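Question thread 4412

I'm putting together a teaching handout and wanted feedback from people who do this every day. The idea is simple: show students a protein as raw sequence, then show them the structure tokens that encode its fold, then repeat with a second protein so they can compare. Below is the first pair exactly as I plan to print it.
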Amino acid sequence: MTIFNTYYFYKRFVTITVFLFLISGTIAQNYQQTIDSLKNELERVKKLPKTIHNDTVRIRILKSLVDNIYEDEIWGKYNKELISLTKSLITSEKTEIQRKIQLSYALALNDDGLYYENKGNGVEAKKQFYKSLELVEKLNSKEELATVLNNLAYHYKFEGDLVKSLEINLRSLKLREEINDQLGIANSLNNIGLIYVLEGNKKLAKDYFIKSASITEKIDDKYLLSSTYVNLAVIYAGERYFLKAIEFYARAKVLQNQIGDINGVAYTLINMGTVYESMKNFTEAEKLYLEGLQIFENIKSEDGISWAYLNLGNIKFSTGKYDLSRKYLDSSAYFANKINMPEMLKKIESSYYQLDSATGNNLGAFEHYKKFIFFRDGISNQETEKKNLKQRMQFEYEKKESILKEQQHSEKIINQETSRKQQLIIWIIVIILIFVFSITLVIFRSLRTTKKQKIIIEKQKLLVENKQEEILDSIRYARKIQDAILTQQIYIQRNLSRLKNQQ
């Protein structure tokens, strides 16, 4: 059974998906038109005057070509051009533009590492990954840093250093959690699960696959979800929960068909066949093997073809059809030797041994048994190293857990102290606000009382003025009367005086 690896997800997912969709003629035509359009636009921009704007456009076009071309030699060529261009512009005067160019340069170095990894040049790949890592760490860009760490973790996994791979994957996971990159978190969880599969801890691997699936189901990323379903199905099959395994393979196959992942569909068919074979349903198993084989032959996947032929050979042996079994085993051995697959060759030699023993070919059985031992011992040495690595990994894991718990304890104390200070500040602010509100209320009431008193005084003043005016009017009236009386008296007095004078 095949566990699906998603380490190249952030660089190659778009490429793989687009490539697999090429099975459809219409989509293939649209895809090629897009690529041709990008190439033509790139040539046009190259002829324009060299300005920061034109160079920025050129960078975007190169990145699109790198992300959407699946042939290593072609996208690798464009990536080299992208590295050269961004490196020449890395001292741009404008800070924001300079940062974007530096990030583009760093990611181009990362893609260059993937190119070398695909070509089997691990030394050069590692060198480019670390160059990229150094740049993104200086730029403090968490999203890009998580991506580079993801690919570096794959490199160490490929080298067999599972401890280092796990350490880097955990670091990548932490960054993705900090920026709430749900797709990245799911991808990291899946990758960590893959490490635990290799380490032999299937239970812990299943826990990580389930966590990854629960996140991916919410964001509806069909590519990653289908891969995680396949990984879970392999685990369930190993636990002999066959119906559960078939259920998850079926789910994965639906998603793979939706996104055009033809290679994934073929592997899923073969995996499902092994489950039916374990259930002794040989008819359904053979049917699935033949379907998978046809797809592998269409896409020229030699390792897939070898695997399908081996399973067909085994099922023919189980049903007593020895001639057909040998024919299929011969085909499987041809492709396994062609691409040098020791694990596959060990299984093939074991099948040959059983077949020759059943048909009475003791000499052939002995020869195939010797070859089986040869491949088994070579792989056993790797298994011994893996066991030693497992012990080291457990030690490193426990050490990291201890450090993490200490950090969490320290963070808890700091958070509690911070929380206490915040509560104190909040209470102080509340008290101040209550005090200010009370003062405001007192002032408001005082102003309202003063206003009322002022109104009363104004009314009293008006009343006094009115009374005063009435008194004055009375005085004036009395005075007029008095003046009238005085005038009459004066007149009489004058007349009396005049009479006296006449006498």
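The second pair follows. I'd like the answer to focus on this one:
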Amino acid sequence: MITHRTYILASSSSSRYNILKSAGLKFKKTKPLCNEEEIKNKISKKNKPSFVAKKLSFEKAKSVSETKKYNNDYVIGCDTLIYLNKTIFNKAKSIKEARTKIKKLSGKKHKIISGVTICRKGKKVWQCSSTTDVVIRKINEHQINKYLKQTGPQVLNSVGCYQIESLGPIIIEDIKGDFFNVMGLPLFKLLKYVSKNK
């Protein structure tokens, strides 16, 4: 995509990096400088999931856009979470946690909710959220163990313990909504903004 702006992706996610790279967007990547877990713990219990995702995406973008190095650039922050039974799920920190999470998702429909914010000089210039419904097949203990053996530690890189662009379809039954949102970035909404603001 042709644009005169320089974008900075405030994320350590390889999935988000690959999405933007495949879309042809000119950008650089750096890690966000805020404490994501601390912010999430403060706001997740009293607010809607879409607010939490947008707030986290804003804090990520803001933290990088306030630095001297990227002060004149447009910084993209993104956060993705899973919502099921009025509960926001965090990333699993171990294979044991991943197994427990997949058991909870098995046979159920959950929501993938992403927030995206673009900041410049510490100020928000654009923001959106996107929701995709995902159904996980009904799977038993043996199938879960087999899946985790196939995926290995990379399963911990995804908030849902599945990567739709990799081995995720083994346990995913259906999705409704933006495919890229399941990967961690609602690409179509972002590119719509970028195309209007070259």
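Top answer:
Good format. For the second protein you could add a caption like this: The mean pLDDT is 92. The chain has one domain: 7-196.
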